[in-house]
Design brief:
Number of domains: 3
Largest sheet: 6 strands, mixed
Shape: globular
Distance between the termini: 45 Å
Strand order of the largest sheet: 2-1-3-4-6-5
Order of helices and strands: HHHHEHHEHEHEEEHHEEHHHEHEHHH
Radius of gyration: 28 Å
């Protein structure tokens, strides 16, 4: 895993383990208080669960901390089950000693040894099963290449070999090296071309024997593209905004990022996207029915319009909309180019003759955009983010800095959507709004844009 993502994944795993342990303590009490008397009627009645709250408060949050200290979460792929059991046993002994200290010094009592035995057995089994499942998921990702981050490794040929050899098996399972660029022998334009070709999220520089000028030029190219640059060096000085340090393969990495970093906020954004999309999809079902009936009655052809759009880092995906143009409208675009009201690569006409009557109403009310909730549920889009452009328009972008809008997931709504939409005729202004969003992103900004979107849709601001 890579840096900050590894830290977040570790914290999520520890939270999951805490929840598992709390559940096991509750279930252990349930077994002893409710099931045991069924089979052993003469068993002694034990106190209610409230008497065991202090045990839960000690065991659930602190056991994952001790497990981390014992190395339980490290080297997951290559660790043997015996090693895991030994680490788990050591951690449980330490936690047991903590419980004993509380009993001695605070006079807190454990009202039932059976509850402890049941809970320890269930908790240990749950943690081992969770670890086995996680290990299997990593192995499957490694075999099938799914869920791996696409990266380019750049530098001098020998440095690249040495760097890749120093990566652990777990780190190698999380990344897919899609290209190797020797920046001492090849121009930076080759690196930029590789970024476009592979939809890469970051470039790792193994730069021990590379001239500083070469590194600086390559980092600047990554910055304008909105792609993170990781440099295996602790001596490189630069004035590029927002540099941070991380560790990969045992080496200090200097990271230059011009997009939001991996964080809990981004994690919550992803959760909010899917929950919000599911809720909106459910609430908007009557509008879907209206749209389907209207399209069927108002025009011949399919209900949905599907088009390949540029997603995160330019990776193509199929975006869904309700069809608002007559069938075969895409083939007519060339004849309408003279009437294009947008500069740059984007094509827009206020009164597009290809749009049929009911389709125009769908556009004015933005109901045509509702099927993109499916793209949000699939993880291809976000509720808030730069609007996705067709792949052929992205290929026509001449300024590399404008491609930085691709460094976040595209969205259903954005600053452009709530500040004029089609009233903005300058592609430069459109991109400036997208970059303003990226540079100032926060969950609060997303909520603010969502709150402004509904009034803009109701007003039909700039829609056509």
């Amino acid at each position: 895993m890579l840096g900050r993502k590894q830290e977040i994944n570790l914290q999520l795993t520890e939270l999951l383990d805490s929840a598992l342990l709390a559940f096991c303590l509750w279930f252990g009490h349930f077994l002893r208080s409710q099931l045991v008397p069924v089979f052993i009627p003469d068993s002694v009645e034990i106190p209610p669960l409230e008497k065991f709250y202090w045990v839960i408060a000690v065991v659930a949050p602190f056991t994952p901390i001790v497990l981390e200290a014992r190395g339980f979460y490290s080297n997951l792929v290559n660790k043997s089950p015996g090693h895991s059991i030994r680490q788990l046993t050591e951690a449980l002994v330490i936690i047991g000693m903590c419980v004993a200290v509380c009993m001695v010094f605070f006079k807190w009592s454990v009202e039932s040894r059976a509850v402890v035995i049941f809970s320890v057995a269930l908790g240990a089994l749950s943690l081992l099963l969770r670890e086995a499942w996680q290990r299997e998921m990593i192995r499957r990702r490694r075999i099938h290449g799914k869920g791996r981050e696409r990266v380019i490794v750049a530098g001098e040929h020998g440095d690249i070999d040495a760097f890749l050899a120093g990566m652990s098996a777990g780190q190698s399972a999380e990344v897919e090296v899609v290209d190797r660029i020797d920046i001492m022998r090849r121009p930076v334009s080759d690196l930029v071309a590789a970024l476009h070709a592979h939809s890469t999220s970051r470039v790792i520089f193994a730069a021990q024997h590379v001239h500083f000028s070469k590194i600086e030029e390559a980092v600047q190219a990554c910055e304008t593209e909105g792609v993170e640059a990781w440099i295996a060096a602790d001596f490189f000085q630069t004035a590029i905004a927002r540099p941070t340090f991380d560790v990969l393969g045992g080496r200090l990495m200097l990271v230059f990022h011009s997009t939001p970093q991996a964080s809990w906020e981004l994690l919550f954004k992803g959760i909010f996207d899917r929950v919000g999309a599911l809720a909106l999809l459910t609430l908007s079902l009557p509008l879907w029915i209206v749209a389907v009936i209207g399209i069927r009655l108002g025009s011949r052809g399919p209900v949905f319009f599907k088009q390949e759009r540029a997603g995160l880092y330019g990776k193509p995906f199929v975006m869904w909309k309700f069809r608002t143009m007559r069938a075969g409208a895409e083939s007519e675009r060339a004849t309408l180019e003279a009437g294009n009201e947008m500069d740059g690569p984007v094509f827009k006409i206020t009164n597009d003759p290809r749009v049929f009557a009911f389709g125009r109403w769908l556009r004015r009310t933005s109901i045509d955009e509702l099927p993109q909730l499916i793209n949000v549920l699939r993880g291809e889009m976000s509720l808030v983010g730069p609007r996705p452009l067709p792949v052929y328009e992205i290929q026509c972008i001449e300024k590399h800095a404008q491609r930085r809008r691709l460094s976040v997931k595209p969205g259903l709504t954005c600053l452009w959507q709530v500040t004029g939409r089609n009233g903005i005729r300058s592609f430069e202004e459109w991109v400036a709004l997208d970059l303003k969003y990226i540079d100032n992103w926060s969950l609060m900004l997303d909520l603010k844009i969502l709150a402004q979107t509904l009034p803009a849709v109701l007003r039909g601001s700039g829609a056509s």
